[in-house]
Amino acid sequence: MSVWPVLVGMAVVTYLLRASFLLLPPEVETPLLLKRALRYVPAAVLTAIWVPEVFAPGDERLLAGIVAMAVAWRWRGTFATIVAGLLALHFFTWLT
Amino acid sequence: MVASGIEPLAAMAMSIAVFAGASMVASAQLLASGSPALLVILATLFINLRFMMYSASLRQHFAHAPLRMRLLAAYLTADNAYGLLLGKAGDESDKLAYFLGSATVIWLFWQLAVAAGILVGAGLPVSWRLEFAAPLAFIAMSMPLLRDRAMVGAALAAGVTVIAAQGLPLRLSVVAAALTGIAVGMLLEKRRA
Hints:
The complex is a heterodimer of chains A (96) and B (193). In chain A, 74% of the residues lie in helices and 0% in strands. Chain A is built from 5 helices and no strands. The longest helix of chain A has 18 residues, at 78-95. The model of chain B has no long low-confidence stretch (mean pLDDT 85). Chain B is mainly alpha-helical. Chains A and B meet through α1, α2, α3, α4 and α5 of A and α1, α2, α3, α4 and α5 of B.
């Protein structure tokens, strides 16, 4: 089977998902309930993306993740969080 | 992707046309195991459902932007570009410029990384464990969002759900986690009001 038709299908589906709401005309008001729900999209989705990478393995990744959470909470910097998390990962690997 | 049997040109074209990492890795695996085209496309739909939520969320900021800007913003939408926008203060046009600018940089680095991956394979030493930088970046983006009880509740519920639902196929665990997180956030907010 050629991969190209699949590729086109994947591209169309993904673009339509991304464009969906953005393409509504500006006059359309976002319903209040949807607005309230959207407030929690970032916290819920972004958390769901990283939790399985950190919690499921249950090894030094969990400890490194906790260090990164503390750094992100206290200093709020992306770069600092990544550096601290990677250093912690290697430190805990070396310890065990 | 190339490792699972997709020709380099198709892998690069997919990276540019689809521009969504998780669904590309999944589709490469599905194609390698001989899955029918429709299943691969369906899997892509479910894995990328979160982009629909981002789209609804971005619309709150960009609804009044010109159509071509919105079309461009839609194409460039990525998890990290969306995450970065949340930390940005300022008015709507500032936010649009910031989003398009940061998303373009992210897009460029992503495509370069994919091209490098296709050309040299895993060139960087595995022992550096740089793949762990991805979840760390998402930790950095999600922690500052936890400003009130409802937000913390939403994130906790999403985290617990995504682990509990890990057995679901097609990465539906992320969708389930998002819905649970949103519901818990709204419940906590209501009780407080």
